[in-house]
Write a structure and sequence with these properties.
Elements lengths: L7 H19 L2 H30 L1 H5 L3 H12 L4 E8 L4 E6 L8 H5 L2 H14 L3 E10 L2 E11 L1 H52 L14 H32 L3 E6 L4 E4 L1 H7 L3 H4 L14 H12 L4 E8 L5 E12 L5 E10 L1 H15 L9 H18 L3 E8 L2 H8 L1 H16 L7 E6 L2 E6 L5 H16 L2 E3 L2 E3 L3 E8 L6 H17 L5 E3 L5 H17 L5 E10 L5 E10 L11 H11 L2 H21 L6 E5 L2 H4 L4 H11 L7 E5 L1 H5 L3 H13 L2 E7 L7 H5 L4 E4 L1 H4 L9 H13 L3 E5 L4 H10 L3 E3 L7 E2 H4 L7
Helix pairs in contact: 1-7, 2-7, 7-8, 14-15, 18-19, 20-22
């Protein structure tokens, strides 16, 4: 935009002011007359020019529509001015569209008028152009820089000149002074009140056009121009605020990590932001004009899409998750929020969808779901999932009046495999069992691992006992076959318990207890078979629940007591050591004693073994300290340690804390563990053993010879003592029995500098045979049953 001083308004005003001043001061009356003639002619020209320019401004629309009636009306309005002699409107091809000819004008003869209208018009134009008192002005009629036609106007100068001549002589002197004063005043007022505010506004507009919205226009006057300036400044502030808001919104949408899609009401995509292209692989050019269905994967239910469209077309916001497909074909999950956009009339004009890629979250959720509901070792449903499936299956069976078989089984010799070959071998065995059993079931049956070596099978729609019986028999036969694990041929077998819905129970927990009781009954009957639940088995369930409850309170009720069994030096026959054995006293007189073989596994299952083991260790060391203080010659206390107790993180710290507390030397304590701990490849066990041996605590392998012994571990962990299992001692000195095996164990131990204890010695013949074989120590009923501390003191030697 050009500066204001060069605009037509300012130039015309300044020129007119100067002209008046120069004329009034420098010219004579004759010149003033001539000037007035010229001024009148200029006024006429200005008037005609205004008419022509106004016509050229309003005529394009009628020309484009070829509306001759309207054009003729415009020409008639122009002709109302008395000065107008002739008006001609032509199109771009110079074809006359409408004309006006002053009826008082006689420039054509009758004969000339009889010629064709086009020729008559041309002849009239020529004569008017040559007429000294006629003024001709011509204007182009344009539309968007395209010429549509012309308007030619001829005006008569005579009336104007005549009017000037009449008045000029009377008023020339009167107006001479007035013109000078008035012209100066007008110029000053116009300059300060109009030119200055307009200049300021135009400069402000130029700044706004150049993008400067920070500098407001100065207020020059406090009138309407001032109000206009104030309004302009407010408009500029509003534009700036809207532009800033739009910039922030645009930046937020463009830089958002979420993809944004805007569609019309038909679903045609009109906008996508950069994250959309990054996530989907489609560029904006590829999707604009397309429908979002190009992302559909076929994995989302049609019901979801129906609900989506129903919601947003009702003007509501829809939230949900969709599984879509990228340009590469890769599936991905999105969390989607779709909102309707309404126009000023409240009608929906567009939809905006904000999408967030949640594929990683879905992966984690699936992983967490699998971890929470499936066994990581076998891939089978775990206990939680099995219970859920059992509830669903029972609900379905109740509606359909079907019979359900709940089959519970575990492996008969699994603990022996774990103890002998280690947990890694046990894990591989469980995986193999899961695979073998899965192949025996129907597709609709469910196999789950409840924990350890316990498995559950849910058989839906079993019309009779034969279905569950056949499956159980096939499982027994399959698992009876040898299984190869790490080069070992394992014979495990299984025991199976079966209960039926609805005849044996209605609740999932009751059915599981029934199946568990039936399985233990199968074990009691010799393992390797199956047993159906009967009402009498409820007694065993009740017994276990009772023991669990009592075990949780046994320590607090001081129901445990340590008994001690002496260990005899095979050469001197003297008692040199004792073994601490835990006893659980009956709750009431006349009740049968609860044996460790019954309550220790339960204590391990319910998590009480740690506290019980700590009690045993503490009581044993305290008793040893008392005996030594009383002068008894007992130089070592033996304590059995459960595998689950041994692997607890703080077990070693517990042992090493109790020894100095009771002033016991480390080598005066010997911990008895099973072979399985040595073979277990977990780093924790190796570290625990190494710490104990480094501190001086002695280690015994209990029941040696019953597992899959890996003899290399004996030397690696510097084992101090082997305790031969009583089953190898039973026939010694009677019928030859296991002499060779016992001799081999003793010989091997002597070569490794390991002491040997023979446990379960009950006959003199056994003692004699063992002494001849070179055993170091003897233990058994031949010498003493386990006794309480107050009773065994009579057998203990004094220093």
């Amino acid at each position: 935009m050009r500066p204001l001083p060069h605009s037509s308004l300012a130039l015309r005003f300044i020129a007119l002011t100067i002209l008046i001043l120069v004329t009034t001061l420098g010219l004579s009356t004759s010149y003033l007359i001539e000037r007035q003639y010229r001024l009148g002619e200029q006024q006429l020209e200005y008037k005609v020019a205004s008419l022509g320019q106004f016509f050229a401004l309003i005529a394009p629309e009628s020309l484009l529509a070829y509306d001759l009636t309207t054009l003729n009306d415009y020409v008639i309005e122009i002709s109302r001015h008395p000065e107008i002699l002739f008006v001609l409107v032509t199109d771009s091809q110079q074809n006359a569209l409408t004309t006006y000819i002053d009826p008082t004008m006689r420039l054509l003869t009758t004969t000339e008028q009889e010629h064709g209208s086009h020729e008559a018009i041309e002849l009239l134009q020529q004569r008017l152009a040559a007429h000294p008192e006629a003024m001709q002005l011509q204007f182009d009629i344009d539309f968007e820089q395209q010429k549509l036609g012309e308007i030619t106007i001829f005006a008569d100068k005579t009336p104007s000149q005549r009017q000037i001549q009449t008045g000029i002589y009377h008023y020339i002197l009167l107006y001479l002074g007035s013109i000078i004063l008035l012209g100066a005043a007008i110029y000053l007022v116009f300059r300060t009140q109009v030119i200055a505010p307009i200049r300021s506004l135009l400069l402000g507009m130029q700044r706004v056009a150049n993008g400067d919205l920070e500098h407001p226009v100065s207020i020059v006057t406090h009138d309407e121009m001032g109000e206009l300036t104030i309004g302009f400044n407010r408009m500029m502030i509003h534009i700036r605020e809207e532009r800033e808001a739009l910039r922030k919104l645009s930046s937020a949408v463009e830089q958002s990590h979420a993809s944004v899609i805007i569609t019309n009401t038909a679903g045609t995509i009109e906008y996508v932001n950069p994250p959309f292209s990054k996530i989907t692989g489609y560029s904006a050019a590829e999707v604009l004009g397309q429908n979002p269905r190009l992302l559909k994967s076929g994995k989302t239910s049609p019901k979801t899409y129906h609900k989506l469209w129903r919601t947003i077309r009702a003007g509501e916001v829809w939230n949900g998750e969709l599984c879509n497909r990228k340009k590469s074909g890769e599936l991905y999950w999105e969390s989607v929020t779709i909102s309707p956009i309404k126009d000023e009339q409240g009608q929906i004009s567009h939809f905006v969808a904000i999408k967030e890629d949640i594929s990683l979250r879905k992966t984690y959720e699936a992983k967490l779901f699998r971890q929470a509901n499936f066994d990581t070792l076998t891939g089978l449903p775990n206990r939680a999932m099995a219970l859920n499936r059992l509830k669903q299956t029972l609900a379905s069976a109740e509606r359909r009046h079907n019979t359900i078989a709940v089959i519970f089984f575990d492996l008969d010799n699994f603990k022996q495999v774990n103890d002998s070959l280690g947990h890694e071998a046990g894990d591989r065995l469980l995986q193999q069992v899961a695979k073998l059993v899965s192949q025996l079931l129907r597709q609709e049956d469910i196999l789950a691992r409840l924990g350890g070596d316990e498995f559950l099978i849910l058989m839906s729609d079993t019309p009779d006992h034969l279905s569950s019986q056949r499956v159980s028999q096939r499982i027994i036969e399959t698992l009876h076959q040898p299984i190869q694990i790490e080069g070992h041929e394992l014979h495990i077998g299984c025991s199976i318990g079966i209960t039926l819905f609805p005849e044996d129970g209605q609740e999932p927990s009751q059915l599981l207890k029934n199946a568990d009781a039936a399985m233990y009954q199968a074990k009691a009957e010799g393992k390797g078979n199956y047993h159906y639940f009967t009402a009498s088995l409820n007694e065993s369930i009740t017994r276990r629940l009772e023991l669990e409850q009592r075990l949780r309170n046994a320590l607090a009720e001081q129901a445990f007591e340590l008994y001690y069994q002496p260990i005899i030096d095979a050469v001197s026959g003297q008692i040199t050591q004792v073994e601490a054995l835990l006893r659980w006293h009956p709750a009431s007189a006349g009740e049968e004693e609860i044996l460790p073989d019954e309550f220790i596994p339960i204590a391990e299952d319910i998590g009480e073994i740690g506290a019980i083991g700590h009690f045993v260790l503490q009581q044993a060391l305290q008793q040893l300290a008392k005996w030594r203080c009383d002068g008894f010659a007992i130089y070592r206390m033996r304590v059995n340690v459960s595998a689950r107790q041994f692997i607890q993180p703080h077990f070693v710290d517990e042992v090493l804390h109790l020894l100095p507390h009771y002033s016991i030397e480390p080598d005066q304590l010997e911990l008895e563990i099973t072979e399985g701990l040595l073979i277990d490849k977990r780093l924790t066990i190796s570290q625990q053993l190494a710490q104990l041996r480094s501190a001086g605590v002695r280690i015994t392998i209990d029941d040696f010879g019953t597992g899959y012994s890996a003899l290399g571990y004996l030397n690696r962990f510097q084992i101090d003592t082997l305790k031969i299992d009583p089953s190898f001692i039973a026939n010694l000195g009677i019928d030859g029995g296991d002499v060779s095996l016992v001799r081999a164990i003793i010989t091997m131990a002597q070569e490794l500098n390991i002491e040997v204890i023979a446990e379960g010695v009950e006959l003199p013949q056994q003692q004699q045979a063992l002494q001849q074989l070179g055993v170091n120590y003897l233990q058994g009923y031949l010498f003493s049953h386990p006794l309480p501390a107050t009773a065994i003191v009579s057998l203990l030697p004094r220093r």
